[in-house]
Fold this protein.
Amino acid sequence: MVSVVVESRQQCPGSASSGTARADTPASLAEAHEVLCRLRPRTDADPRVWARFHRHSAEVYANTAKVDERHQHEATHWAGAELRRAREIEDRLDLPADES
């Protein structure tokens, strides 16, 4: 069994928001943070679950960058960071990475 350390964020960005985020396509970066915070796996979840979560997060942030022009650059940054996290986990587990 491969041991992988996954960083733990005690509080998700935007977690103090109003609770209005939709589960489909977030209309703002704050909504994206809120949606992903709700979907975030438990700290002790299987690393494969974390890799899938980070890949999904990258997609959500990339789509958010297209609709939230005011936060386009920040959402793009988050998308890249989440993709890097997914790849790091996949590399440690020796999983095949998507061609994203």
Summary: The helical segments are 29-39, 47-67, 72-93. The radius of gyration is 14 Å. Residues 1-10, 14-18 have pLDDT under 50 and may be disordered.
